[in-house]
Amino acid sequence: MKVILTQDVKGQGKKGQLIEASDGYARNFLLPRKLAVAATAENLNTMQQQEKAKRAQEAAERSAALEMAEKLKDCTVKVTAKAGNGGRLFGSVTSKEVSDALKAQYGIDIAKTKIVLPEPIKAFGGYQLKCKLGYEISGTINVTVVEA
User: Fold this and answer.
1) Distance CA 66, CA 52 (A)
2) What is the three-class DSSP state of 23?
3) Are the beta carbons of 8 and 41 closer than 8 angstroms?
4) In the chain, which stretches have pLDDT less than 70?
5) Which residues pair with 90 in a beta bridge?
6) Single pTM value for the model
7) Which alpha helices (DSSP H) does the chain contain, by range?
8) pLDDT per residue over 9-23, tens digit each?
């Protein structure tokens, strides 16, 4: 019996996949637990439309990520911080501070979890931070730390 999985089933397949299952397994396990639906013409058509919509959404998100990476190339974010003797900062500049400054100065909203700090920023100066935008696309944020 052919069925379309509505959830991931261990040993069978992933959600949205068309599989061939034995009649008893499908009728007694998959269908009653709503893990799958019978592969009728209507359900197959619905599955194909959902896949098409998913691909279109992924393409839109990918193009938005590429556009965001292009915007980030031109931005230099200024972050102010307090420092003690010798130019060492009190604490460090975090990805949250960089994210907030980017939003305040340029109106670009990037989650702090997407900004990669290889090591904590503990001194004044210029830095280049990597930003993971998804779909294996990354941008570069230029950050300048200045004294408050």
Assistant:
1) 21
2) helix
3) no
4) none
5) none
6) 0.68
7) 23-25, 41-73, 95-106
8) 999 999 989 999 999
